[in-house]
Design goal:
The complex is a heterotrimer of chains A (177), B (237) and C (546).
Chain A lengths: L1 E4 L7 E4 L10 H11 L7 H12 L4 H11 L3 H10 L11 E6 L2 H5 L2 H12 L5 E2 L5 E6 L11 E3 L2 E3 L4 H12 L2
Chain B lengths: L6 E6 L2 E6 L4 H7 L23 E4 L5 E3 L10 E3 L3 H17 L14 H8 L16 E2 L5 E4 L8 H10 L4 E4 L6 E4 L15 H5 L5 E3 L13 H10 L2
Chain C lengths: L2 H16 L3 E6 L2 H4 L3 H14 L4 E6 L11 E4 L3 E3 L7 H6 L14 H5 L17 H6 L4 H9 L2 H11 L11 H10 L6 E6 L8 H8 L1 H15 L3 E6 L4 H16 L15 E6 L9 H8 L23 E5 H5 L1 H7 L1 H5 L9 E8 L5 E6 L4 H8 L9 E6 L5 E4 L9 H6 L8 E6 L4 H15 L5 H18 L5 H17 L3 H5 L2 H9 L1 H9 L19
Parallel strand pairs in C: 1-2, 5-6, 5-8, 6-7, 9-13
Antiparallel strand pairs in C: 1-3, 3-4, 9-10, 11-12, 11-13
Helix pairs in contact in C: 7-11, 7-15, 8-9, 8-11, 10-11, 10-12, 19-20, 19-23, 20-21
Classes of the chains: A alpha+beta (177), B alpha+beta (237), C alpha/beta (546).
Chain lengths: 177, 237, 546
Amino acid sequence: MLCAMFSLEEEFVPVFTPPPLPSDDKRWKIVNGTMRKNGFARHALIETLHTVQSSFGYLDDEAIRFVALSLRVPLSQAYGVVTFYHYFSLKPPGKHTMTICTGTACYIKGTDKLVAAAEQRLGIPQGQTTKDGKISLMTARCVGACGRAPVVLEDGELRGQMVEGEMLEQLERWAVE
Amino acid sequence: MSDAVEVKTLIIDGEEVSALRGQTILEVARENDIKIPTLCHLDGLSDVGACRMCLVEIKGSNKLLPACVATVFEGMEVSTNTERLQKHRRTILELLFAERNHICSVCVSNGHCELQSLAQEQGLTHIRLPYRNPELGVDASNERYTLDHNRCILCTRCVRVCAEIEGAHVWDLMGRGINTTVITDLHEDWGSSTCTRCGKCVQVCPTGALFDKSRIGMEHPKNPDFLPYLNLMREAK
Amino acid sequence: MTIEELDQIADSVRAENAKYDHEINVCMGTGCLSQHSDRLKDALAKECEAQGKNAFVRRTGCMGLCAAGPLALVDPEEILYQHLKADNAGAVIASLGGEPVKELQCDLREHFDQQVHVVLENSGHIDPEKIDDYIARDGYRALLLALNDMTPNGVIRQITESGLRGRGGGGYPTGLKWSTVAKAAGDVKYIICNGDEGDPGAFMDRSVLESDPQRVIEGMAIAAYAVGASKGYVYVRAEYPLAVSRLTACLREARRRGLLGNNIGNTPFSFDVEIRLGAGAFVCGEETALIASIEGRRGMPKPRPPYPAVSGLWGKPTLINNVETFANIAPIIRKGGKWFASMGSERSKGTKVFALTGKIANTGLVEVPMGIKLREIIEVIGGGVPDGHKFKAVQTGGPSGGCIPEALLDTGVSYDGLMSVGSIMGSGGMIVMDDTSCMVNVARFFIEFCMTESCGKCIPCRAGTAQMHTLLTRICAGQGTMEDVELLQDLCSTVKEASLCGLGQTAPNPVLSTLKYFRDEYIEHIVHKRCPAGVCKIEKPQEVLA
């Protein structure tokens, strides 16, 4: 997709043809929009990956390749960026996500026990999704709501002063949906 | 102290030496046959100051500076081999040996390994730290070369030579911290990646992590000396 | 936009507000929002109408006392209500003009009396998304003052005189940093606001960005004028979505009013700001890693020198300051550097916002003058350790800091003061621990954090924190030896002195400070295979019956 046009007298000037959108899915237009807004500059990589993740829920090889080639970032460099940042996920999220904060204030107030209880109930270690795809269990390093510790995020919504019983109840509700 | 002066005088290990403005402590030391150990540095590649082996002491400061990136200033007094530095170097090597699975006796680079030579030079006799024994694999999919992650010290020379000299940028790092590994393209098999098979990464790798398949069972010294030459040729348009 | 026009806006806002007998400010910071303070606000507004009261209900930012949320403040009587629910709305509105509702009232004089609100002066009093509210409280006067009546050098002089030091934790003299960037050669310079606030337990920056974001933007604009920059970036953690949306709204408002963009205040000065999202990497709070992140790369720090002030974003001179640092700029320009320097201690001027959390009664944000004793903050302002437990330690500075025991609580809070007791100021997180915390486990917790957040570039941090974690885990499990402690101290030394960036260099601090002040707990785990706080699960060796 890198075409070159030159004559023997002129300097070699490669002409860049951007890759086509991976599919008709309208969300690719949104992703393309972020890249265009930043002038298809290399530094737009992280902003664009955010758009992909918020549009599709996660990043797969096809998405990373499309963004990398559009911004002319080497494939390995793009993959390195995706895997460096904790926020980006390579796997599709569950229907619901329980994120337990393990920042210092929350830890002091016992979120390690919340994590253990959730892991036991769901049968998966933190960072993974249940086999039926219903619930993802994540931990966050601090969501900045320490005054309400211990804190969990239920599908992104903050719930402070969480107790084990309440959290397990929510997981039950999600499990039987 | 005017920065317009092109020539600087400084003291390294008690010896008065001269340098040009903009030169690194490592360059000046080498010009004067003063040895400073390095691992991630390689003539011809950009410097990253990552391995911390080249740290030196500067009089008047408690902060240790990496000689490969720190530039000289007038009147600088550098010590390259104090007890404090020696202790740190040995600890860094211990950390490396315990980090992954470095077994010299079965390695193609046995006898020609920069990590091994450094350990001998620095007088490392014991590894006090618990061996981590991570489960790491091998990628032999490339028809010419093989990557053994167990021997990798994450010096990133392969990443830099592929990006800066070959221009293909096939190698990069994935993950973070102790889980960092080198990858090709989108974490794919080396053999099916955009690799041009130029072999530069093999030549610059300081250990037996990257090696030439045809050298198995034979001596496998590495020859990265072509690098400064390539740079020279590229600059002369 | 001229100062006269600003005054006109301020006057009209005040005139509008004066039409009402009462103002009810409802806290809608993340903490209170999570307890449905939005429903509370709607209920209050409905009740005002239903009861025919001449009052207006305003959405505001954080009021600081998270432990008592949802909070609402009734002005002009200054009645603070706590733990409010939507069905309390009727009673609150009915009481307007008369006796406050006693059982809902929050009367913590000790908590508020000693606080001095500079950074937080507007938080809880303005609608963060209404720029006119900010203007009515002297917002943007400082910027126009600087542009019209001061030279860039004059601005820097005021900041230097104020003695302001970087509030992100480094404590580097702000005036000196600005002066370095101003003197750096080049036409293109950048301002970066560090909103990465990765320290677990710290949420001061989040609160300021959610409650009074214009303040930060004004500070950045003044800085840009002073150093010669025309483009700024606010780097915000992805974990702060409300902060991002409030900031986005504010930038739009500021541009609309001509306070951002080209020819601000009818002067040749132009400045605009973009938001950049973080993506979950604590190390990106480090300046060179932050720059790498804005450049779209892995957040791996670079050796310094060269410093960002000389060669930063895309190689250009870059001024990076923390959110709280920028939040102090406008008042300093308005009231003068001398005013700021009149507060605080000898080498730590002004005030500091702390996030007081953990085992303490009044959790939340407090802003106090520098130099105040730790004991004052914990026992008086914080209300002490609840539930009959005993204070054990206060952790400051996040993963880069240390734990301070009871015996040292008379230390004054200042950059030097905290360093003298083996900790650091850090960004302002202050976590109180009681007798139910195991200090060895706390050390292990922090090392685990540094290990997982390490970027992996340099060997001491990458492998050193991992090895330290293994050793501490062994000790916690009752399988450690005294040789392990020696090895731990050796590793601390190498990781501290040989790491490339601040993350590695300060990672050993929690370990070193707990070894210093709580060595007995380590010995208890190792020699007696017992965890005094009852936290660590230690398997007792089976008794062998003879």
